[in-house]
């Protein structure tokens, strides 16, 4: 492992889709900052909060919004499009999307 570099990889290292690589230097991300970075064939969202680094998928699982443009709260990131919240340590969804601005029209 290289010193002062962030190595990103999934927690389950026995996964056949396991990918690990150096994505940036530790001093290239500030406190409460989020960065979308390339990893393998996809992107990750690297987050630094309370001095700890974590990485989750860069796109919202709802309609694929870029989470790097969302709002970082205490331990969670809120999707900029419909407000779903994801835990920044596990990537688990904690609040589901809200589609309150959609207007429904009867067809026919
Ligand atoms: S795209 Fe993220 S909540 Fe809809």
Question: Mind sketching the topology for me?
Answer:
Blueprint: E1 5-8, E2 21-25, E3 33-39, E4 42-49, E5 52-57, E6 71-72, E7 76-78, E8 85-87, E9 93-95
Antiparallel strand pairs: 1-2, 3-4, 4-5, 6-7, 7-8, 8-9
The structure holds FE2/S2 (inorganic) cluster (FES).
The site of FE2/S2 (inorganic) cluster has 10 residues, from loops.
Can you characterise this structure?
- It is a single chain.
- This protein is mainly β and 108 residues long.
- The protein has one domain (5-95): Rieske Iron-sulfur Protein, CATH 2.102.10.
- It has no helices and 9 strands.
- The strands form 3 sheets. Strands 6-7-8-9 form a 4-stranded antiparallel sheet, with no helix packed on it.
- A hairpin with a 2-residue loop joins strand 3 and strand 4 (42-49).
- It starts with a strand and ends in a 13-residue tail after the last strand.
- The mean pLDDT is 87.
- Bound molecules: FE2/S2 (inorganic) cluster.
- FE2/S2 (inorganic) cluster is lined by residues 60, 62-63, 65, 79, 81-84, 97.
């Amino acid at each position: 492992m290289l010193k002062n570099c962030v190595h990103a990889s999934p927690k389950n290292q026995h996964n056949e889709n396991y990918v690990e690589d150096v994505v940036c230097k530790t001093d290239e991300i500030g406190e409460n900052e989020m960065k979308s970075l390339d990893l393998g064939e996809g992107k990750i969202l690297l987050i630094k909060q309370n001095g700890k680094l974590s990485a989750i998928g860069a796109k919202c699982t709802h309609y694929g919004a870029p989470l790097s443009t969302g709002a970082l709260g205490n331990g969670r990131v809120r999707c900029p499009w419909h407000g779903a919240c994801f835990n920044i340590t596990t990537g688990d969804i904690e609040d589901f999307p809200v589609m309150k601005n959609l207007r429904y029209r009867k067809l026919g």
